Amino acid sequence: MNSIIELKQVIKLYERGSEKIHAVDGINFSIAPGEFVSIVGPSGSGKSTLLNLIGCVDKPTSGVVEIDGVETSSLKEKELARIRNTKIGFVFQQFFLLSTLTALENVMLPSVFSRNGQKTNKTKRAKELLDIVGLADRVNHLPSELSGGEMQRIAVARALINSPKILLADEPTGNLDSANAEIVYNILDKLHKDGLTVIAVTHNLELAHKTQKIFKLKDGKMMDE
Amino acid sequence: MNIITLSLKSLKRKRTRAVLTIIGVAVATAALFSLVSFSIGYDRSLKKEMQDSGLQMLVSTEGCPTEAASLALHGGEITKYVDEKRLAEVRSIQGVHVATGMLMFSLTEEGGKTSLFSGIDDEIRKLKPYWKLKGSWFKDSSSIILGAEAAKVEERTVGDKIYFPGLDREFNVVGVLQRTGTEDDGFFFLPIRTAQEVFHKQGKLTAIGVNVGDPGRIEKVKEQIEELPDVYVLTADQMMGQILKLVGSSKTLMFAVLAIALIISIVGVLNTVLMSVMEMVKEFGYMRCVGAAGIDVFKIVLLETIAVCLIGGIIGALGGSALSSIADSFIRSVLPYAPAGKMIEFNPVIFITSVFFAVILGITAGIYPSIKASKVSPMEAIRNE
User: Fold this and answer.
1) Which domains are seen in chain A, by residue range?
2) Which terminus of chain B is more solvent-facing, meaning fewer CB atoms within 10 Å of its CB: N or C?
């Protein structure tokens, strides 16, 4: 089966003074379309760096990162932005909702930057997504009026507005209590079952064990699957 | 939602800062609107004043042309006089349509009150056809005609008497001029002979006003008048030129002050926007993460700056229009000569130009912060997560 994400000998090196830190050190893996994968490991193991490389937020020092058949490590920033906008949805631990925008507007935000030429009704789509994450009654609420769990669900809806093929979630339940973590996980699971490729970086082993595949990282290296 | 609404939403978060920036831009725009309106209005009013006066040439004795120009329009006293004989000689020159003698004096009474007198003859009515007289023209040597403002200040009307202690003479008010919007409103007009008598200047004139009808004849007639002894001829154009030259340096100074104000305004806006960009680095980084290209972030910041400057520009231009009378009197106070009547009038072209200028100011101030914002890496959002 063709992979939607393919990493070959990916290295990400940071220099701190004379010290060289291998945040990601020679990683190879591939993920098939529609898989639900988790990446686990201790703090500083390179989980988030790996997610950023997959999400085209960062570039590898060497190696190949292929997203949906496109080799991204040699692309220019403008082309990477296009990939982030069209193929990838991002969910952050800190939610990153804009405080002046309502729930609906926050969900619609990535569509403002969309260049895929689709003239679909983004407001309607955003409302549908808010309905999917169970927040249809919070459309006009500002982030300050929402709980942490609600904000993360809005962040998930926002990640889906441009109908990406891949959803990347960096500690999506890290700031949530267990009940809200469960709700968010269930949403991610449902999205995966609907055909979306989901990759979650997490410390939450309970959540990780519910995914189809677990990648364990230590010191930037892949330990086992 | 689009980039424009996103920019405007961003303004809401920094309300106080946005309001202060808008005020800064509004003040600069109001100053720009007022000064440009004034500059255009000044030249227009001066030209109109010249045309209304019907005065195409002023014959005075040799002296300061600016003084003569100011005298012709505002009245005043100069110590050199034209011999009255010149009046008849000027009238005899072929092509002279109207020539009228004028004797101007200012009288300061005890207590510091100054009254402006003008000795005139019947011919002046041809130079000032717009004069509307309530009452009648001079009947005898004790007749006086009052300008509208003079009549109001002295509380006199047709049929009243008026006594000037400084002259120890009483006059009969035979006529009151309707308001002209010119300096004539403040004058006391006497028959020329009476003026010469009370001011002890028999046979003398301050100046001779000349009209030749067809402007094409001005140069030719001027040359002929200049052949007369002890005269200096100033045409209306020269008068205007002299006055414009005189106020030119004042205008330059005012525009220099304006330029400094605009530069300060640009730096102020730039500083505000730059601070805002610094504070929003994480948000821009996050926008980049969800697919915003550098140009999108650039547009957001620039549109936000333009919006602030556009609002400030409109408020400033409206404010400048509303406060035009205050600006008018302020500018008058710093200029050596200003024509009568309202100089600053609402002009839609100047209004739009001023607002456009405010937008240009916004673009100028916003470009650097916008470029800086556009270069924020998506990693900025994640870096300190």
Assistant:
1) 34-62+69-222 (3.40.50.300)
2) C
